[in-house]
Each structure stands twice: as structure tokens, then as C-alpha cells.
Design a protein that fits this description.
Length: 116
């Protein structure tokens, strides 16, 4: 019998993308992992907000919220800038992050941002 861990159940309810409705702003790509023994569940999420002066501010806020119950662990795997025009239904992802982590060349928000 296969049972879902508490961490996996929590990850199912994390929105894949949460970005401001429009404007130019920083984003981070965060990999969320289960901390439960024997559970290798993970999910990639994108967060981008105009209020953040630095990428790390977004990561710190999001990871603090997700990690508060001890079930999940977060890792920053990418970042950059987004130009979002919701009215025209256009998203342009570009740039880089000065966050001091080793980014994977495959670390891109393309797989989790809304299409079209």
C-alpha cells in the first residue's frame, strides 16, 4: 500500500508560479524538497515580485514560509528578471541573479510559468 507523506501532500498545494500581474521584476526558481525520510518528492516553483530589491529577499520570504513546519526544505536553483504584460498575455524571462548559488543550465522557469 502506497501512502503519501505529509510533505508530499503539502507540496501538491503549493502553486507552481506566483508572479506579479504586470511590470518588470526579479524572480527566483526554487526547488522544494521533502525532509521526510524515504521521501524524495520535489517540485520546482517560480516566485517573482516587484517589491523585491534583491533576489534573495524573495527567496528568504518564500523559503521561510514553506519551511516553517519542518516538513519541507528549499533550494534556490535559478533567478533573473521577468517582464510580464498580463493584458497582452506576454512574459519575457531574461537576465540573471546575483544570488550566490550554483545554477543548473536547465534552471529555467519555462516549465512552471503559465502558457499563453
Amino acid at each position: 500500500m502506497c501512502t503519501q507523506t505529509k510533505a508530499a501532500a503539502r507540496m501538491v498545494n503549493i502553486p507552481q508560479a506566483d508572479i506579479d500581474a504586470s511590470g518588470v521584476f526579479k524572480y527566483v526558481l526554487i526547488r522544494v524538497h521533502s525532509k521526510e525520510k524515504g521521501d524524495d518528492t520535489e517540485v520546482d516553483i517560480v516566485r517573482g515580485y516587484g517589491w523585491a530589491e534583491y533576489h534573495a529577499e524573495i527567496y528568504d520570504k518564500v523559503s521561510e514560509e514553506l519551511e516553517k513546519d519542518g516538513l519541507l526544505d528549499c533550494e534556490c536553483v535559478g533567478g533573473g528578471r521577468i517582464r510580464h504584460d498580463a493584458q497582452a498575455k506576454k512574459i519575457h524571462v531574461y537576465g540573471y541573479s546575483m544570488v550566490s548559488v550554483q545554477f543548473s543550465p536547465l534552471a529555467s522557469p519555462d516549465s512552471v510559468l503559465p502558457k499563453g
